[in-house]
């Protein structure tokens, strides 16, 4: 066995190159073996080793969509970012407990890893190393299954939306949602107080940012309802998991002009209560109401409908729209992602098509993507949020209601996701 002195006869640049292929924790262990090893890892002024460790074990953030709007390649602190990720890993695997500050630190780190994931290449779809690492870590930890403090609920909900529905074995995919969670989400999704002018009748906060807790409840209602569908329909469902949040992971992305991947064929699940049940849940005293969870747990007559629609969309000029309210604030427009306007057909189980139109725009936060859908009249409208990055396979989750927005109007969750143009057309179903 060679002595430490023999090893360090090798130029430090060569040692760093070798270390770049090691696990970060092993590099840390190596640095503690002697002073010379410590100097090789921590003393160089450049960030070559730290950059290579991130690129080998995660994704190159310079290739992420975030890089297109900033000079991230010039100001990215590779050393700090890698240490941040390793520290977050230790925090969530710590069985002795996590402080609120530590939990916030870890959650923000994990969301940044998702944001840094490389877009899907239409030529060769290579899995993301960073998302694979994060999925393994979240599967081992329990941070998404514990009750978070109020101020962290949005962060936990956002990460849950990205990951939680995939954190099960294939034969147990619907068992993840407990009856209690389903009831809680139904109570939230069908509570008419959660839809008003202040949140634009959608899953938003008053400042225009995404209400991820609302999105999670809408997703939970739909995902749980899929378990009630006959066996034939269980494979007709949105894609879930961290990989599906990557930019351009949806099929058939047509052109750069259509940055959101709007054009093409989509499937849309819509859920709703009978309007008499919806009114009774919100305004009557039955089952210790109004808005008591007993309405769903003790009411043997309660039924919830699930409808699957086929949608075909095409990007059009704004002046081609007839009914949609497409007002948007020019002050918050992203020049790289200008608003897109679309027109199309939605077809249900009866085979009859209805005209729909709407708009896609980048959110106020510069990251989230908002989708507004109207039918070809002035009756129905929908507001939704892209789950993940631009043109992600996870699709759009939101709420539908009327265009008039009168008090007491019906409301319900929807999930819209893109499929290939040759996706079977006989899978449109109406199930109650």
UniProtKB/TrEMBL annotation:
Residues 4-53 form the F-box domain. InterPro entries: F-box-like_dom_sf, F-box_dom. It comes from the Eukaryota. Pfam families: F-box. This is F-box domain-containing protein. The lineage of its organism: Eukaryota, Fungi, Dikarya, Basidiomycota, Agaricomycotina.
